[in-house]
Write a structure and sequence with these properties.
DUF805 domain-containing protein; transmembrane; 63% helix; single chain; membrane; transmembrane helix; 70 residues
Length: 70
């Protein structure tokens, strides 16, 4: 009977972990010149790995803008 119930704090803990992961990913996306909402993709399994590889190996818009300005 207890197997079907979730601990009440489970959802709160999931929210805390999600915030702890999404906020840095959001900031990284913004600093590289991509929209911050791409950081939400870090919550989707397998897509999160794709996001990390995309950010790591693509040319960042922020770098392009910096080269044009200076």
């Amino acid at each position: 009977m207890h197997g079907n119930t979730l601990w009440a704090g489970h959802w709160l803990w999931m929210l805390v972990i999600a915030i702890a992961v999404v906020v840095p990913a959001w900031r990284i996306c913004q600093r590289t010149g991509y929209p911050g909402w791409l950081g939400l993709l870090i919550l989707v399994p397998l897509i999160n790995l794709g996001l990390l590889y995309f950010i790591a190996f693509s040319e960042w818009p922020a770098d392009r803008k910096e080269r044009q300005d200076g």
